[in-house]
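ok here's the first one, seq then struct tokens
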Amino acid sequence: MAERAALRKLLRQKRQALSATEQQSASVQLEQQLIQLPQIQAAKTIAVYLANDGEIDLTRFCHWCWHHDKQLCLPVLHPFSKHHLLFLNYQPNSPMHRNRFGIFEPELAAPQVVPLEQLDTILLPLVGFDGDANRLGMGGGFYDRTLAHWQLQRHVNAALIGVAHDCQQVPELPIASWDVPLDIIVTPSTYHRAL
């Protein structure tokens, strides 16, 4: 755990150190990488996130999705199930508020909840990754807890795609038993597929 915490600190500093120009360039390049993926081309409903803490920005990709009639969803902190997420429909005019971490999310409204079973692709933010598509998150375990039960039930074959800056790659990540494996990690310059 100490090794993961130290890695988290180092890699968060790396992505936070990127200039506004570097962040913008990464966002443009990432959009081009994502829209070429068969999983994105085929998807009707895609879960995205709003960048925070130096994460790579998906705004351009979101606009591409809306232009191509893809339904987008954003994660929302689950109001009753601690350390879990719900996914809500996300439109350019969705009413938003900041959650307890200061991250914008749609205002919770039951008709806007999209069941996990309806998601074709989930784009996950991450702090670090390795060449085998292993993901190191922020440490809260929200995605891992939310997706673990869902994967065990095998209700869905949605693609799990991590997205990150190239500088967030490390030679090898220490893996924990609760880490949900990803299918692929996409950066502005390349793809890393799970073995």
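and now the second one, same deal
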Amino acid sequence: MRFLRFSKDGEVGLAVGDGKSFHGFTASQEGYPGDLTPALLTKKDVSDLGEALSAGEQIDLSAIDFLPPITGASKMICVGLNYADHSKETGFKVPDHPTVFPRFASSLIGHEAPILKPRQSDQLDYEGEVAVVLGKGGRYISPEDALSHVLGYALFNDASIRDFQLRTPQWTIGKNFDGTGAFGPYLVTADELPAGASGLSIQTRLNGVVVQDANTRDLVFSVAALISDLSQTLRLEVGDVIITGTPAGVGAGRTPPLWMKDGDVCEIEVEGIGLLRNVIANEDASQGNAAAEGKHLVEHR
């Protein structure tokens, strides 16, 4: 199943489908089960949620705005340097333990929304990644049991402002500019994919040119290993997101560097999950504030 969060006429909606056809409800309609994370908490099984949504009307994908698949996660944890070739191209040693940093909800956008190039920098870089969404929480999770905690997978563009990322030893500030965390286009349940989403081709294209081309089997730390390792420190919760890292080919690793600019189109495609597409747009202060306020109203309605 694929769960789609969307907005239509100022209302949040939730739908289920196969990637081409979706059925569901908006918040004002009878039958709306609530937003995805709360709905998952009240349903005994994800199939129950899918069955309830399938009774809704067909969603016209051309008439909606795609929203990030999950909102209000207690934790969004990004993993850095999780492909050996990416560590090499950026001059870092392959880590002995997962390198992690947070992504904040204020940075998130959906499929087809613009990634904002900030006024402060021209060093806007792409990072195609697979995101893991948890359907069951826990602490001290064993590697053998870890994949039973996965609800599904989505795509993520961890667009990074490189000069801000590297001006301090901690990367967080360069990873959390508003409008830079593209997340979507929807959530694909784990049963549709190989265990741990391993063995899937992952590709990033900038203006139609392939800039990253790899396979998820090459993760340094697998999805199961990441869940188990993180749970030794953090109590993981339903709806938490782990963003698993990017392969080689980023703009910062090229000579000369390849930065995204206004009007560029960045696409991330992963076998079995889908395609995440975003146009790059220069940040405009007044437009950005208005968009942020409108998003806040939609997300909390």
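notes on #2: The domain at 76-300 is CATH 3.90.850.10 (Fumarylacetoacetate hydrolase; domain 2). The two ends are 25 Å apart (CA to CA).
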